[in-house]
Amino acid sequence: MTQSQIGLAGLAVMGQNLALNIAEKGFPISVWNRSPAKVDATVARAEEEGKGDYPLQGFHDVAEFVQSIKKPRCVIMLIKAGKPVDATIEVLSAHLEEGDMIIDGGNEWFPNTERRAAAAKERGIEYIGMGVSGGEEGARHGPSMMPGGPREAWDRVAPIFEKVAAQTDSGPCVTYIGPGGAGNYVKMIHNGIEYGDMQLISEAYELLKTLGGLGNEELQAVFEEWNGGELESFLIEITAQIFARKDDQGAGGHVVDHILDKTGMKGTGRWTIQEAAGKSVPVGTIAAALDGRFLSGVKEERIAASKILKGPEETVEVDRAELIKDVANALYASKICSYAQGMNLLRAASGTYDWNLDLGSISRIWKGGCIIRAAFLDRIKQAYDRDANLANLLVDPEFAAELNARQASWRRVVQLAVRAGIAVPGISASLAYFDSYRQARLPANLVQAQRDLFGAHTYQRVDREGVFHTDWVE
Ligand code: NBP
User: Fold this and answer.
1) What is the span of the domain harbouring residue 319?
2) Binding site membership of 78 for ligand 1 (Cβ less than 6 Å)
3) Whose CA is nearest to atom 15 of ligand 1?
4) What is residue 173's three-state secondary structure?
5) What ligand 1 atom has the least distance to the C-alpha of 81?
6) Among all residues, which ones are annotated catalytic?
């Protein structure tokens, strides 16, 4: 039996598909899973899809699995984040040797990766935390990957992942991100931005459906058209597909209308907001997306409230064609704000943890393979190429011009939504971010005065240096 170039542990959705992708690219791979049935299923799939040509070997025994990998070994884990990862490291470490490497490809909370990396180092084992995005399809045919940890260790295995990643006109969607938990962090922000995009799209849907009266076929056509222009992205594309899908459970109509309006989530969106709060970085659009999911969760309360609380009396009339155009503009402008927030959080983290993150390269590897993949990410990369120290995407000359050109539409959409009583928390949070960020003066002077009055917190003045306190009550 030939020795494999790499090993993969954890053969659920992501692991099984990534293993087949690695094998398809011609890299000999050994696979193992705690429950042996998934090993057999993976081997069977490799036989079928590769017609016997995929260099993939399955193992039920973890010792045999590790021994089948060429030294120094590299084992990538696709295991449920948290305790299961610790348990798997324990099992693997009993057989790994000094100089070997573990890559965790899961959505892990970055301090966990840093803790594990420190423990692995004591055993002479290299440890890399690598965000993998693209779901099942991405894992199988080319994901976007965000590895963080020791640079030399990564360089040893980079050629494998560069072949396995999604390929774009500006290269494979993988690049070394930075030391420590930088890879997990960047994946976390990717997911936060993904939450923002999904919320903004759902608001566009609500406006077009409720205010514009568009049916599912019309929505499909609008989203297909949008996908041919500046909004082109995976999420817009799949949204069009969703509106096309007829129900197959005998209820008639389209599946989308039979889905309960309660959103699930796993944790990366919540972590993004926690991190933003800890670093004092405003991420209102992403926070609105998280709140949107929380509010969706209290379905029973919402049903009760809908019988008590009234919306506006006014009937809002719209011109459909104008509405569709305005919503597209509002969606695009809001998206710029959401990405600006995510990128600024990355920059803040880079400074705090000394990661030296390259925001342009990060935008580049999100161009393909991942859930937020979009033509638009090329524009973000170009903005950071023009100025690597850009304070905010909003002030890049090209994005600034686009925002300025779209703001009349953007404001009309928010006004219409408010008049009609339709919640657009993501679109309006983006507009508020834009309107706050472009102000040389905010009403924060009054907040500071209040703080000084009730807590003697002092304030600075606009006309002279120093720290001041006023005895407010005469
Ligand atoms: P899951 O997150 O559902 O994890 C299932 C895997 O973890 C199985 O291989 C399972 O083994 C193993 N496992 C568990 Br659970 N407890 C274990 C333990 N105590 N010891 C050893 N193995 C254990 O799989 P997934 O959806 O493929 O995701 C893998 C990682 O990739 C996760 O971190 C996830 O957040 C991330 N991710 C997922 C997606 C996606 O679209 N699904 C996308 C991007 C990233 P078993 O078979 O024996 O139970």
Assistant:
1) 188-437
2) yes
3) 80
4) coil
5) 33
6) 187, 194
Structure token digits, residue 311 = 């919306």
| Residue 395: Cβ within 10 Å count | 15
Which of 159, 180, 201 is at the close of a domain?
A: 180
CA angle 472, 473, 474 (to 5 degrees): 110
263 and 373 share one domain = yes
d(CA 38, CA 34): 8
pLDDT at 2 over 90: no
> How many angstroms does the Cα of residue 26 sit away from the middle of ligand 1?
25
**pLDDT tens digits for range 349-381:** 999 999 999 999 999 999 999 999 998 999 999
Q: What is the mean pLDDT of residues 153-170?
A: 97
pLDDT of residue 203 exceeding 70, the answer is: yes
Ligand 1 atom 31 nearest Cα: 106
The answer to whether the CB of 14 is under 6 A from ligand 1 is yes
- Considering the domain architecture, whether residues 421 and 452 belong to the same structural domain is answered as no
Whether the predicted model's global pTM rises above the 0.85 cut: yes
- Indicate whether 155 belongs to any domain: yes
Q: What is the pLDDT of residue 365?
A: 97
Does residue 73 sit within a domain?
yes
283 lines ligand 1 (CB under 6 A): no
pLDDT at 265 over 90: no
With a cut of 90, say whether residue 267 has pLDDT above it.
no
Give the per-residue pLDDT at 1. 65
